[in-house]
What we know:
Layout (H helix, E strand, L loop, with lengths): L2 H4 L28 H14 L3 H17 L1
Amino acid sequence: MEFWDEHSFLDYDDIQEAHFSVDLRKNKNYVDIGEDLAKQIRIIANQKGTSSSILINQWLKEKVESEQH
């Protein structure tokens, strides 16, 4: 049995207000990448001493900039 099944929130009078923040600007964008391509990217990123995410972002930025010119 769960704790709250047998207890009530109202049984506790020493409840303190909780403060926290959420940064909604840190969103993630997910793109489906084929498994073989993802494996190749991981290998290259490892050889360059970086993460796949950083490498992909770098490549995409370069491609977008070249398309804009």
